[in-house]
Design a protein that fits this description.
- The complex is a heterodimer of chains A (259) and B (755).
- Chain A has 11 helices and 10 strands.
- With 259 residues, chain A is of the alpha/beta class.
- Chain A has a 6-stranded mixed sheet with strand order 6-7-8-3-9-10, with helices on both faces. In chain A, strands 2-1-4-5 form a 4-stranded antiparallel sheet, with helices on one face.
- The two termini of chain A are 27 Å apart.
- By secondary structure, chain B is of the alpha+beta class.
- Among the domains of chain B are: 193 residues, Orthogonal Bundle (MetI-like fold), CATH 1.10.3720.10; 83 residues, no CATH class.
- Chain B has 15 helices and 33 strands.
- In chain B, β8 and β9 form a beta hairpin.
- In chain B, α3 crosses α10, α3 packs antiparallel against α12 and α12 packs antiparallel against α15.
- In chain B, 42% of the residues are buried.
- Classes of the chains: A alpha/beta (259), B alpha+beta (755).
- The complex binds adenosine-5'-diphosphate and magnesium ion (MG).
Amino acid sequence: MPATLPESRPDFIRVENFSFHYGEKQAIFDIDMAIPEHRVTALIGPSGCGKSTLLRNMNRMNDLIEGVRHEGDIRLNGISLYDPSVEVISLRKRVGMVFQKYNPFAKSIYENVVFSLRVAGRSRKSELDETVERSLKAAALWDEVKDRLHDSAFGLSGGQQQRLCIARAIANQPEILLMDEPCAALDPLATLKIEELITKLSDDYTIVIVTHNMEQATRCSDRTAFLYMGRLIEYGDTLQVFNKPSHPETEAYITGRFS
Amino acid sequence: MPDMPKSPDPKRFEVSRATLWFDRFMGWLIRFGGIAVIVAVFGIFYFVGKEVIPLFRSAQVEAAGEVASGSAPAVLGVDEWGEMPFFYDGADKLVFVDMQSGERREETIAGLTDLKVTAHSYDAVHHRVALGLDDGRVGSFLVAYERKFDDGRDPRVEPSVTPEPWFTLKHGTGPVTAVSYGDSGAGRAIVAKRGNGDDSTVSVLRLGMKRGLIGKGKLSLLEEADITGELGSEAMMVRASQNGAMVLVASASGGIHYFLADSGGVSKRQTFAPFGSMAPKQMDFLFGGVSLVLTDREGQQEQWSLFRPSEDGERLFGKTKEFPPLAKGPVTFAASQRNRSFLTGSGRELSIRHSTSGAVRWEGAVDIDPAAATLDAKGEHFVIAAADGAARRYAIHDPHPEAGWRAFFGKVWYEGGAGPVYQWQSTGGSDDFEPKYSMVPLIFGSLKGTLYALMFSIPVALLAAVFSAAFLPLSVKRIVKPVMEIMSSLPSVVLGFLAGLWLAPILVTRVPSVMVMVVIVPLAAILLGYAWCRLPIGFRNRFAGGSEWLIVLPFLALAGWAGWSLGPVLESWFFIYKDPASGREIADFRLWWPQATGIPFEQRNSLVLGFMMGFAVIPVIFTIAEDALSNVPKSLTAAAAALGANRWQVVWTVMLPVAASGIFSALMIGFGRAVGETMIMVMATGNTPITEWNLFSGMRTLSANIAVELPEAPVGSTHYRALFLGAVVLFAMTFVMNTIAELLRQRLRERNKLV
Ligand SMILES: Nc1ncnc2c1ncn2[C@@H]1O[C@H](COP(=O)(O)OP(=O)(O)O)[C@@H](O)[C@H]1O
Ligand SMILES: [Mg+2]
């Protein structure tokens, strides 16, 4: 952990009594939590406990699914995501997302990075070039691809593709970066690189990361939330959650008694 | 090895016998099935090839007997079966020779013995030998053949000779030097030249049957017209058409004079000079009596036919074809009595030519110098005879003389037409009708039908697929897709029936409405989209999840209805037809269109077809394109959405490139469906084989053509085989299109390949 943390609003994202249903099935039960700005917050918990669901609600990606319903609210910097005046498109520009399985488009590396600018109608060459360099550098990919920016993104290794997806997600300089198990499909070396990257990015972005990997949570998150069966069981500073869990389920989970 | 620890159950590593048997059985079954499919496909190719290839074979000619008659062939004729040629020596002797046995039978024509024959000609159809005498009389005798079947032996041909009455020419003096005889059954004409040099005269005799109370009636002279004054120079050759309605006289100065001989008398219609100031060396009518074949001294051979040079003008002769030139030398000519082929040649080099396609069907050499030649009525043999009476018979095998590359794919100048055309007209009213087998109008029809069908279907189907895949809520999509799939299984005969009997009569009065709707509905959709964007986000968010269609649908329905009702208004403004007779003005598109554009308006037209084909083609394209779009990985669309792309941008930038090859396949399958579609085409297009893109006329497609005509085409005939050729062309078209499309698709897929 760096000694001096940047300025942080403690409840930059507020999840308020939030429940979520996929049709009949309730996936989130009444979660209440505040996520601080410019920090890395990890969501941990066994499979199917609702981590992804919660994360995906933070940029309303769940809107794309048929028959979903929610109660409560999620506020971004004080403004409700579900306010009728919120335009989902612009919301998603503020909240970037990186998925579990790297998913670059069938385009060149360059075009992948500038995708968010293109769909926003920005196509000035100098701006695009600048964005590509900045984003790829921030994603620690620049040195590896700078000579083949116009080659297909599929020519990259898995780890590189995932970093490309991160570069793509931050190209538009969102405020928040949501990451859903970004290392699940990567080998340990690539994982290490992404973890370093996450730590570095937290200076500029508020990061919420879902992870299955305890070490990863301890290595790169500031705060950790433990979800179990759709409920928030424990939430606090990472060190505290891992060293002195206050709930027996948390302890059972982090000591690997169930997954 | 007694001490080995026993494996717990060795049987578990064994495969049961039944499994093995089943595996082997299925293996063979599948192999059999695969081979059977391949055999079936090749069987089809074989069958179709067997029907089509004979069309492109040239004629086969082989020697089939030789005899010696011992009599000069001033006139050579032969019976229908080519078995017993006769040789008329130009005086009173007639020799019949049996081709099989060589047996000669000599006959003296009673009544000719004391006369001096100075001119003769032969009409092969009636077996009539026309005669002219030195005393100015003209007449003829008929040779008749009868086939006798007695006591189980091979049929025998029995000839007989019937003299016909004489008529004395009133005009001119001296012997008759040329004669020609035409007979239509009801009326006859004889054209005869008298004398030689500048004093010679030419007369046309019109004969008619005076009906008696009993019996056949009596042949009598109606009129004798002296046409000498109209010729300008000495007549070299006279020809009456086989039905006696036309008389042609070639004069020494090269002009050919065409006279019409009908109940109105004999009148000159035209003079033409095919070879400048040179008189032709040969001039004869072809079967049908509409075309002349002429050869000049240099061997140049041309066809002149009667046609109307202008829309409402008179039928006159014009040059329609040039054949490959003959070598210099004596010209042989004999016209077929079945079709437009003829035997011609110079010296010993003979050829069989077909006038319609201009093709040389056969070429070869004979071993005598032909002084006379004739074809039998079936077109199965020709007989040539040398001056010394030696004769050769040749068998002709040419079942499809009118076929060939030119006839199927080239422009052909048919008899009676004003110029070379692409035309399909397989059957006609009369015996001498010339079938026209051009594939071009049918290919055109197939392309036109396909084009209009696809022009309507592709935009609708693709937009619908995009809408369903990317905009429509899942709950609605779950209904729409199966409904579309059911639609694609609607029998096309039902669609064709609806098109022809329901839609066509409605649309025919509502063309302006359709025009307004075509403009107004998309315009309304665009306007609605624009207005929607201006609405406050709070309102728009209420229709999240794709339920906007609830607003779009009634709005578009309203726009459609408005277009439908505005049509007649538009019609009354712009589509005013002026009745040329009364000068009245009528607002009616149906009448206005032909008047304004000069092209016809038909009830069963491409517009109707486009709509109805839509029902057949749209579901096919829609279903496949929708699948392709829906199968774009969710991870990609989600990534794009997470990057702030709106729905349309997700479609445009991510879904379409990935689904491109699938959409392409959808289009190709739609194309295949449209090209091969038969029942709708048969029932909704009117089936006229025309070649114009006019939206308000129909077409005849290759497939419809086969469906309509195959039942009435005699198996093995040119017509029958031409229909199969149509199938081959159709196959080739789709094959080429599909191959190109597949190559394109592969490239598309390569470019947008996903790992
Ligand atoms: N699209 C969906 N439709 C229905 N149920 C879903 C959907 N996505 C997730 N679920 C259910 O919601 C619960 C939470 O899922 P998720 O958030 O993906 O868990 P995880 O913590 O493993 O990411 C699970 O029980 C899952 O079955
Ligand atoms: Mg998950």
